[in-house]
Protein 1
Amino acid sequence: MSHAYRTIDVPVDGGALRAGVWEPADAAADAPTVLLVHGVTASHLAWPFVVDRLPGVRVVAPDLRGRGRSNGIEGAAGMAAHAADLAALLDALGIERTVVVGHSMGGFVSVVFAHLYPERVSRLLLIDGGLPLDVPAGLSTDELVAGILGPTAARLSMRFAGTDEYLDFWRQHPAFTGVWTPELERYLAYDLVDDGAGAFRPATSYATTADDTVDLNAGTSLPAALAGLQHPTRLITVPRGLQNEPPGLYAPEHLDRLLTVYSGVEHERVEGFNHYTIVMSPAGADVVAAAVREELAARV
C-alpha cells in the first residue's frame, strides 16, 4: 500500500469540512504535498486512482462544502467560500504552500483560491475545468444548470432504495462503459446519504450545485481571478463530456479563443477520455499523476 489514508474534520464558516489525507508509506520529512479539489457533485473519493500513482507524495483532498460529508455546512457556497475553506484546511494541516490540482468545478475553485490566497499556491494544474465555459448569456438558474450539467443535475433530485440500486443506476451511465472498478463503487457508495424519509439521495443538494454553477458562470470571483492569474498554470482538456459525448466541455473553437485570451496557460488536449475518466479510471489517472509529478518537480 503506497499511502496510509485517514479523514479529518476542519472547522470552517458554517460547520466542519471533511477531508481525506493520504500519507505516503515511506513518508520523509520533506515529502511534497499536493492539494486535490474535486468537481461539482463529487467528493474526495474521486481521487484514489491518482493517489495510488503518487508514491512518496502527501495528498490532501476535501469534500467541498455541500458535498460528501461536508454537506451539512450551512451558509452560502460559491468560489470564494470554497477558497476560504481550502485555506482553513491547509492551516489545520500546517501546509504553507502547495501545488493545487482542480478537476471540473474544482478547477474554478482552484483558480479563485490562487487569486485570493496567492502565497498558499505554487502551481495550478486544471483538469477539464477552470477556464470559462461556453454558455449563452441571460439564462435562468435552472437553464444554466441544465445546460451545463444536464442529467447530472437531474440525478440530485432522485431517490434510491439503497446502495445497490444507486450502483445499478450508475452502471448504465455512458461515461463509465468498460471502466467500472471497485474504486468507482466506493466513490459512488460514499455519495449516497439518508434523505430522512426512508430513502437515499446523492449527498450534494441541487440548491448548492445551482449556487456554485451560477457563481462560476456569472459571478465576479472567477473573472477577477483569471484577470489576475499569476501562478504557472497548466490545463488538461478531454474531447468528451459528462455523458461521454463530443466535443466535451471545451469545444476546440471555444478553447482556441480561451487560450488566446489566457495565453499564459499551458494547454494539453488528451484523447481517449471523457470528463469523468480522465480522473476516475486507471489510464486517466496515469495521465493526471504524471502531470502532477511534473508540476511538483517544477515548483519553486
Protein 2
Amino acid sequence: MKLFIQVPCLNEEGSLPAVLSSIPDRIDGIDEIVILVIDDGSTDRTVEVAHEHGVTHVLRHTRTMGLARSFRDGVDYALARGADIVVNTDGDNQYPQDRIGDLVQPILAGRADIVIADRQTRTIAEFSPFKKTMQRFGSFVVNRAASTSLPDAASGFRAYSRAALLRLNVVTQFSYCMETIIQAGNKRLRIASLPVVTNPKTRESRLFTSVFHHMAKSASAIIRSYLMFKPYVIFASLGVFFGVLAAIPFVRFLILWASHGDTAGNVQSLIFGSIMAVAALLSLALGVISDLQRTNRVLLEEQLERIKEIQYRR
C-alpha cells in the first residue's frame, strides 16, 4: 500500500518544519509513505524549507491558484505515481499529523472510502461562539445535502482511497471540502469520522478574509454541488411555491365572483395569479431540463472515471 501525504502551502516557511517533522515514518499496513508539498505560489522559502527537510516531491504553482486547485493537482500527481491512499493535511500545522495512522485505518480495513477528522470545533478556544455556531450549522446543511452525519464537514484533514478519488471531481475554485462530501454522499461512498485535537493556532486563515466571506463562499459551493445532484428538489419546491401563490388569488377571485357576482376591482388577482402560474410552469420546465442535464452529467462522469482508470493505471 502506497500512501501519499499532501501538504498544500502558501508562505508556510515558519510552520512547515513542524508539519514535516510530525508526519509518522511508519504506519501499520502501509508499505511506502510519500510526502508531497504543494506550493501554491509562495513568495517565501517554503520550497527551500521542504527540500531541506528531505521532501523530494514538490509541486509548484507560479501564482496562487487556491486550495481547491492545489488539492486537485496534488491528487492527480499522487494517482499518477501509484497512490493507494491520499491524505490531505495543511501547511499551517493546524492538524495533528501524528494521527495520520489512525486516519487511514478505516480505509485499510475496508470500512470507509473517505475518513474526515472531526476537529471538535466546540472545544477550540480560538473559535468565537458565532463561528462555532456557524460551523455546526454548515455541517448540518452539508449533511442534509449529502445524506451524511458528519460532525465537522469543513475539516480539511482527510484520507481518501484511490477508488474514491477516481470517482470524485472537484470543480469549485474555493474549497473542495464541502463539494467532495456532497459528491461522495450522493455517490454512496462510505465516509467515516475520526475525532482529533487540533494544534494551537499559528496564523490567521489565508483562505478567507472573514467569517462572512467564508460563509458566502461555502454557501455558493454547497448550492452549486446540490444543484448538480438534486436539481429536481430545488425546482419542484419553487414550482410548488409559485403554484400556491398562483392558486390563492385565483381562488379569491372565484369566491368573490360566486358570492357577489361582481368582480370589478379584483382583476389584479387574476393578473398576479397568472404571473405566479407562469413562474410555476417555468420552474417545472427548468426542473425537467436540469434533471436531463443531471442524467447527462452522470454518464459523463462514468466516462471520466474510466478515463482516469486508464490514465492512472499502475
Protein 3
Amino acid sequence: MNVNETVGGIGEFGLIEAVTKGYRQGAEVLVGPGDDAAVVAVPDGRMVITTDLLIEGRHFRQDWSSAYDVGRKAAAQNLSDIAAMGARPTSLVVGLGMPSDLSSEWVTELARGLQDEGEALEVSVVGGDMVQSDKVVVSVTAFGTLDGREPVLRSGARPGDEVALAGRLGWAEAGYAVLTRGFRSPRAVVEAHRRPLPPYEQGPIAAMAGASSMCDVSDGLLSDLGHIATASQVVIDVRSAALAIPEPLQAVAAATGLEALSFVLTGGDDNALVATFEPADVPIGWTVIGTVAEGNDNQPPGTVTVDGEAYEGATGHAHFRS
C-alpha cells in the first residue's frame, strides 16, 4: 500500500480488503469478514456483548497516540468489559468513521492494533463498517462466552465481603496529566495513557473463585465502585494504605502539584478489575483494598468512602459533564 494514499483515494472496498486480508480467525468464528454478517459459535447458548466509542479529540489525539495505539486501546476497553462479567472474549466488530483525506496507512495500523490486542486471547475481528465523517470515530463491539458459568454482576456484593483489585490504577491518568502539560515523560505513564494493560485473565479467575460482584475500572476506582455500591445497595469503604502508588505516579504528582493518591482513586482508562469476595475466596493475583458493609443513616446504601470518610472532589470521569 502506498504510504501517501488516502482513504478517499483507495476507496471503501479497497480499504476493507487491505484491513481484513491479514486477520486470523479463531475457532469460534464460523464465517468471518466478507459476507453481510459474521457467524460466531456460542458454546453454551449465551453471548456476552458490550460496545464502546472512541472519538478523536475527546478520547484520543493523533499527536499523542499512534493509530496502532488507538487500535489497542479501543479493543482493550471492550475486552476488559467482557472480562469484568467473568467471561472469555471471543470476537470483535468495528465501526470506523473517518475523513476522506485520512491516510489509508493510519487505518491499517489501527486495524493491526485491534488485531494484536486480541491475539493473546484468541479474539478475532470478524467484521464491521466504514463511513465518512468529519473526525475519526472508532466504535468497537465485543462478544464473549461464559463457558457455562453464571455472569458476575455489579449487584451481588454483600455486607462482610472484601473488595479486591486486579491490575494497576492511576497510570493512565498520570500520563494524561503529563501530556496535557506538553511533556512526554515519564515514558511509562505516557505509554499507559496510550495503551492500557487490563488483567483480562483475572475476570474468569474471579468468577471461578466465587466473586459476588465485579466491575471494570474505566472511569475511576471510586466512581466504578459507586456502581457496585448502588446496584448492590451496600456501603463500600476503600483503605488508601492498601493502594500502591508507584514511583512514576509520585514523580508526576511532584512535578505537577497534583496528588498521587487522586490518580489512583479517581483516574480512569487503566481498565483494572475490581470485585467483591467472601474473605476466604479472594484469589491469587488480587489485592484486598476495602470492605463492604450495610448502609445506615450516616452512610446510606450506594455510598463509597475512603478510610471511613466521604471523598472530597470528583470521584472519576462522568460523561456529558463539561
